[in-house]
Amino acid sequence: MKLENAELKHIEKIVAISKAAFESDINVGASEVGGPPDYDSIPWHIQMKNEGHLLQVVTDREIVCGAILFVDKDGETLYIGRIFIDPIHYRKGYGISLMKMVETFYPGIKRIKLDTPLWNVRTNAFYTKLGYCEVKRDKDFAYYQKELN
Question: What pTM was computed for the model?
C-alpha cells in the first residue's frame, strides 16, 4: 500500500469511493443516505487535489482509499478533513494502514486533529482504538486529537 498525492486521472474513481463510503454510513447510524459537503463532487475533489489536500491509497494497482488532509501554517498540526475507504474493502485492515500512513506522511507533524459525527459508532470506535483522545464534543460531533512522538 502506498499513500500518495491524488492523480487527476483517478478523480472519478476517488469520488466513486467517497460516495460509496459515505453513503454506507446509513448502516451505522446516519439518518439518511448522503455525506459531508461535496463528498460526491468531482469539481470539489479536483480543487482539493489542485490545492494538495487530496491523497489516494493504491495497492496492487487499485485505489482503495482516499483522504483529505490539511496541514496548519505552523507545520506541526495535521487536520484530517476526511478519510474514506471503498466499502468492498471494509474489515481488511486498510483503515488502520491508512491512518498509520497519514500519521507519518508529513514530516514535522506533532499532532493530528479530526472530528466525526456522534451518531457514527463505527468511526468513533475506530479513532479511539487508534489512540485518538476525545478533546471535546458538541451536539453533532466528537473532536479527537492524537499527539505524535
Answer: 0.92
Which cell is 105 given? 506522511
Strands (E), the chain: 2-5, 54-59, 62-71, 77-85, 111-117, 133-137, 141-147
Widest distance between CA atoms in the chain: 41
Each residue's pLDDT tens digit, 59-118: 988 999 999 999 999 999 999 999 999 999 888 899 999 999 999 999 899 999 999 999
Secondary structure class of 95 (helix, strand, coil): helix
Give me the amino acid identity at 57: V
| Residue at grid coordinates 469520488 | 15
* Residue 94 CB partners (closer than 8 Å, separation 6+): 1, 57, 59, 64, 65, 85
Instruction: Tell me the β-bridge partners of 2.
Output: 58
* Residues 83 and 112 sit within 8 Å (Cβ to Cβ): no
- Are the C-beta atoms of 28 and 94 separated by less than 8 Å? no
CB atoms closer than 10 angstroms to residue 64:
20
